[in-house]
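Let's practice the habit of predicting before peeking. Look at the sequence and jot down your guess about where helices and strands might fall. Then scroll down.
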Amino acid sequence: MHRQYREHDVSFHLRNAAAWADRATGHALASQVDPGFRHGPEAFQSTRCTTR
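Done guessing? Here is the structure:
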């Protein structure tokens, strides 16, 4: 399920970047996509701070 959301989010972002957002901002917004990003509990486990 999370993969489906991720694919939709990335697709939406890339379509907007290509259609208008790159020109509007002057930046290549497709480069903002983080291929290592994960939704859900896995994301919290991999980024949890281990120092106190």
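How did you do? The two ends are 34 Å apart (CA to CA).
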